[in-house]
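Folded chain entry —
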Amino acid sequence: MRVDQIFHEAKAAGRAPVSFEMFPPKGELTLERAHTAAEALSACGPDFISVTCSAGGTGNSSATAQIAAMISHDFGVSAVAHLTGIGLTRGDLAERIEAYRAAGVENVLALRGDRPQGAALPEGDFSYAAEIIPALAEAGFCVGAAAYPEGHIECDDLAESIRHLRLKQDAGASFFVTQLCFDNETIYRFLDLAERAGITAPITIGIMPFMGKQQITRTVFLCGTSLPSPVIKILARYEDDPESLMAAGIDYARRQLEDLAAHGVDGCHIYTMNRPSVARAAMAALRGDAA
């Protein structure tokens, strides 16, 4: 099913879609293990699952499309395949579009992609995600795009990030998925600014339960995400107790999700890190189950 239809039907039913993100095979994660992870995530009952490309502009688009198609075909869950424009020529994009079509992909999340560490953007025909959206929409895909509650890491002006959000919508994006954020008040301020800028496409909020100090440190530097005081206190309290830190991180995410649901956001998107236990905890929070 197209994701824009999922949001439309959920809104009519008075509920908000819940989605998961998983990453494709890399290193020891074989396609067989990816199938197992996707099966477990699908069993949690998400409205859709998005499948990333590898970071750093080296996206494995073949595996991304293959896994997205497998999720839809084998498990009956709608899937979104990420597609990055970094380093692509117009000819390359046309080839990616045909490959995604051939794989049976119906929904695409259009991204610029991360620049290689310590390097300039690779040469290509596209500098921004908004530039690849029209071709994807014209090809018949339901196109989503990224949103940044704290602004893009390479942009110091939040108003400029909001302007780019509007450009993506005008280019044909029909839904947005936010970068992870640990502070709901920041999220609500961002949503207010987006509404004032004329953003009418649904915005689903990205939440990542933190599982360890190394993970959260890497995420902060990669995404430019800030750490609110409660998170810093959790990290300090359980610095030498990894098991308790993981439990506290999941509990923090649960409380974020419960608050988001109470505020009636368009949807919640869980960065699962391919862990079914994280997905189950998130669904429990959103369903109001006991912790």
